[in-house]
Known about the structure:
The chain contains ten helices and 15 strands.
Amino acid sequence: MDALDPTQPLAAIDAAAQAYSNWQRWGPDDARGTANFIDDAARVRAAALVRRGVSFSLALPLSADGPQSGRGGRMNPMHAMKAVDTDPATAARRMPHGFGYADDMVVMSLQCATQWDGLGHVFDRGTAWNGRRAAEVVNARGDRITGIQGLAAPLVTRGVLLDVGRSLGTDGELPDGFAITASMLDSAAAAAGVSVGRGDIVLVRTGQLARVRRQGWGTYAGGDAPGLSFTTLGWLHGHEVAGVVTDTWGVEVRPNEFDNAFQPLHQVAIPHLGLLLGEMWDLDALAEDCAADGVYEFLLCAPPLPFVGAVGAPVNPVAVK
């Protein structure tokens, strides 16, 4: 699928869904989707990639200062202290033998910063992952079948960084609205000296986050951005990756490639491929290290926080080289 008719989003969605569907691939009761590509052997191979022991957190700070602007109802974390017993005299009245403590809480949208989209996050005209009716999967109490807690264990595997921003952008940053194609992913992999295969999580750096750091959050959460072209669905399916993540809010290019459209790649990737999508990952420090030592593969540990019934969740991904 190389050419797109921007006036026909549904036709493209239908063609991609038929061509790349993973329905029933792992049985009728599957709730993990492409995480099934990660097996024990894949984790052993990934662990063997650790040579220096250096680690990188790929998470944005969970802060009230951003990146969310309130668009779409998503809110940044609101952190509050429930107890601050720093005064010995006060603490003594509450607890024995001088014991003092602090305790806190947070209220937040689960997809406000670095996060995974769960398999119950997006539907295609009322159909959820593996051909289930969306209403059977998610209701007002949450995702009863593909809740994000089911991904708490499997997401430890080989990570591969494709620094498309550096391979195509003269300053390491792609402009907003830039559509990354399958051939560009192949070129970035070739430049990095890596191949992409079954069970890998592919980290695609566009460089947008580096620009946002200089200029402020602005419309980062939901606005225009570089990202994957809809035409990369075949590449992602063919390489049998466990997940794909970017340093942008929505993985796919924005504005989207179709007229009057909203996230068409999501509409195929999640309910039809069962593909895990990671958003707003901070890839800059890792990319600098990869460029310095020429090694673009690493052990990646990226389990979501296991909120039961959630359709997405924060993650602190850690890459170890």
